[in-house]
Automatic annotation (TrEMBL), chain A:
Enzyme class: ligase
NCBIfam families (UniProt xref): gatB, PRK05477.1-2, PRK05477.1-4
Function according to Swiss-Prot or TrEMBL: Allows the formation of correctly charged Asn-tRNA(Asn) or Gln-tRNA(Gln) through the transamidation of misacylated Asp-tRNA(Asn) or Glu-tRNA(Gln) in organisms which lack either or both of asparaginyl-tRNA or glutaminyl-tRNA synthetases. The reaction takes place in the presence of glutamine and ATP through an activated phospho-Asp-tRNA(Asn) or phospho-Glu-tRNA(Gln).
Annotated ranges, domain Asn/Gln amidotransferase: 326-474
Listed PANTHER family: GLUTAMYL-TRNA GLN AMIDOTRANSFERASE SUBUNIT B MITOCHONDRIAL AND PROKARYOTIC PET112-RELATED, GLUTAMYL-TRNA(GLN) AMIDOTRANSFERASE SUBUNIT B, MITOCHONDRIAL
Protein name (Swiss-Prot/TrEMBL): Aspartyl/glutamyl-tRNA(Asn/Gln) amidotransferase subunit B
InterPro entries: Asn/Gln-tRNA_amidoTrfase_suB/E, Asn/Gln-tRNA_Trfase_suB/E_cat, Asn/Gln_amidotransferase, Asn/Gln_tRNA_amidoTrase-B-like, GatB, GatB_C_1, GatB_Yqey_C_2, Gln-tRNA_amidoTrfase_suB_CS
Record-listed E.C. numbers: 6.3.5.-
GN (gene name): gatB
Protein source organism: Mesoplasma entomophilum
Subunit structure: Heterotrimer of A, B and C subunits.
UniProtKB/TrEMBL annotation, chain B:
One annotated GO biological process: regulation of translational fidelity
Annotated GO MF terms: transferase activity
Record's protein name: Glutamyl-tRNA amidotransferase
InterPro entries referenced in this protein's UniProt entry, alphabetically: Asp/Glu-ADT_sf_sub_c, GatC
Keyword terms of this UniProt record: Transferase
Species of origin: Mesoplasma entomophilum
Pfam family, one: GatC
Length: 479, 95
């Protein structure tokens, strides 16, 4: 296999996070009752006309800007004609000839080595209806039909399955933090098609490219590419022609299966969409869209490690989830103990999220209360061990402040000097013989008294204040 | 002159199937059509840019992503040739 060079290009379809569809005002939904979120335009009723979703354009501009693309502010759409019931009009509205973005790049990191991936184009289009094939019928749900998509196409510059996976992961992170899409591969809001060809090192010509469509996880991208490279290599070594075709990945057999060859390919007879006149975007508005783009994970990563002093590992764990990131950033508005917030998020809270198979935004836990709990520990109002008691309560119920819970459970630490003195005196009196060891082993004496103090108070004494008073009282007793 | 193969390919793109006799009829009709179009080809279009719309204009309007409109599922399903439960149904066309 080492004798061949691998050439990979990737196309990603990304569902835009808008309230309404790209060309109609029907709501965008996932998991709703089929055929309830559609209107006349989605169903191509006679006389209905498309209108362009401003937010859809804004999200496309954000993505273009983050991918360092040239943005075409004269927006034009085209028709991709095909006869199939997943779009009722008989065509898809897309941008074949004038993509909104072109000539971009994205820097990826593969095993510690940086690589710049050239992105050829980003264009807007609409999603198709969802189909379920069962027995001799196809069941169609038009709720998804017309949802805004951007398609992002790389040049054939990737050279391994690892590079392909790193690219999709990085692109996913960028789009997630830009709030362009929720990029859930398992729910289809990010779908990946991979074009793979090989050539012997030292030759100019590639084999015919094979497209593997609709890969729905990073691991499937890796497995599909590895399978294809091995399959094409064997064919090339056996002097068999590699047919230009579209294949799909079957994860039960860990192999790709032919769907259609080039000879079956449709001619989509593209032409300019006559129902949508060219739209000139206001340059100031485009600049505003770019200026108001949410902060990218790469910028946050630098801030988390340099400014908040998190380890790079902890920063990366938080940044794998937008919900966790937003929670962290809200919590640190109310406490300066950034590392403690990160530690609790990554350990206790993450474990609970895993157990309940949920995300932090679905929990009752308030970032303000988490910060309050951490502040109370830092101010020695409660002991750090009590966080184990308080945390499960505030994760389930946000109706009470942490201070209210502390008072109800009577776990506030005793820091008052008189109160501690009154508690320590009887302990010293009942341990008079112990004091004789103080000159030789002072720590043993003070720690024994401290242990008894903690026992009688249920561990609720401020340890620092307690120890100061113990030393003071023992020494005054001996003098 | 477009041959039989051209129309077979066109039929495939349109997901239609024609018999040999029907294809022959289409091929025969094309000569008449071609004569009509030859008149159009005589128009001098030198230095004329393609026009995609009835009038050449640029719009500024974009729809806000706020108001939503839907139509009742019952209407959607009753307009479909066949339906089952919440779905529009068609004869399965994939293998």
């Amino acid at each position: 296999m080492k004798n061949f060079e691998i050439i990979i290009g990737i196309e990603n379809h990304v569902e835009l996070k808008t309230k309404t569809k790209m060309f109609s005002s029907a709501p965008v939904s996932y998991g709703e009752t089929p055929n309830t979120n559609v209107n006349e335009t989605d169903m191509a009723y006679p006389g209905s006309l498309p209108t362009i979703n401003k937010k859809g354009i804004e999200l496309a501009i954000r993505a273009c800007s983050a991918l360092k693309m040239e943005i075409d502010t004269l927006v034009k759409f085209d028709r991709k004609n095909y006869f199939y019931p997943d779009l009722t009009k008989g065509y898809q509205i897309t941008q074949q000839y004038n993509p909104i973005g072109k000539n971009g790049k994205l820097i990826i990191n593969v095993n510690g080595v940086e690589k710049e991936v050239d992105i050829e184009r980003l264009h807007m289009e609409e999603d198709t209806a969802k189909q379920i094939h069962k027995d001799d019928l196809t069941f169609i749900d038009y709720n998804r039909a017309g949802t805004g998509l951007v398609e992002i196409v790389t040049r054939p510059v990737l050279r391994s399955a690892d590079e392909a996976c790193a690219y999709v992961e990085k692109l996913r992170e960028v789009l997630l933090f830009l709030k362009v899409s929720d990029v859930k591969m398992n729910e289809g809001s990010l779908r990946t098609d991979v074009n793979i060809s090989i050539r012997p090192f030292g030759t100019e010509e590639f084999s015919n490219k094979v497209e593997v469509k609709n890969l729905n996880s990073i691991s499937n991208i890796k497995r599909a590419i590895e399978f294809e490279v091995e399959r094409q290599t064997k064919m090339m070594l056996n002097n068999q022609p590699i047919i230009q075709e579209t294949r799909r990945f079957d994860d039960s057999t860990n192999s790709t299966v032919s769907m259609r060859s080039k000879s079956d390919a449709l001619d989509y007879k593209y032409f300019r969409e006559p129902n949508i006149m060219p739209i000139q975007l206001d340059e100031n508005w485009v600049d505003e869209c770019i200026k108001n783009s949410p902060e990218l994970a790469d910028i946050k990563r630098v801030k988390y490690t340099n400014e908040y002093k998190l380890s790079s590992n902890d920063a990366n764990i938080i940044l794998t989830s937008i919900e966790m990131t937003e929670f962290f950033e809200e919590a640190i508005k109310h406490t300066n103990n950034y590392t403690k917030v990160a530690n609790i998020l990554i350990s206790d809270i993450q474990a609970q999220l895993n157990n309940e198979n949920t995300s932090i935004d679905k929990m009752a836990l308030s970032p303000v209360y988490l910060a309050e709990m951490i502040n109370l520990v830092d101010q020695s109002v409660i002991s750090s061990k009590h966080t184990k008691t308080i945390l499960p309560i505030i994760m389930k119920d946000s109706s009470k402040s942490v201070m209210t819970i502390v008072e109800e459970l009577n776990i506030k630490m005793i820091s008052d000097e008189n109160e501690i003195t009154n508690l320590v005196n009887p302990i010293i009196e009942s341990n008079i013989e112990l004091l004789e060891q103080y000159n030789e082993r002072p720590e043993r004496v003070t720690k024994t008294i401290m242990g008894q103090l903690m026992k009688v108070t249920g561990g609720n004494v401020n340890p620092e204040a307690g120890m100061n008073i113990i030393v003071k009282l023992v020494e005054s007793k001996l003098n | 002159m477009k041959d039989k193969k051209y129309y077979e390919d066109l039929a495939q793109d349109s997901m239609l199937k024609f018999s040999d006799a029907e294809i022959d009829e289409i091929v025969a009709k094309q000569e008449d059509l071609k004569k009509e179009f030859e008149k159009v080809l005589k128009i001098d279009t030198t230095n004329i840019k393609p026009l995609f719309y009835p009038y050449d204009d640029i719009h500024l309007y974009l729809r806000e992503d706020e108001e939503t409109t839907t139509i009742d599922q019952k209407i959607i399903l009753s307009n479909a040739p066949t339906s089952e439960g919440d779905f529009v149904t068609i004869k399965k066309v994939v293998k």
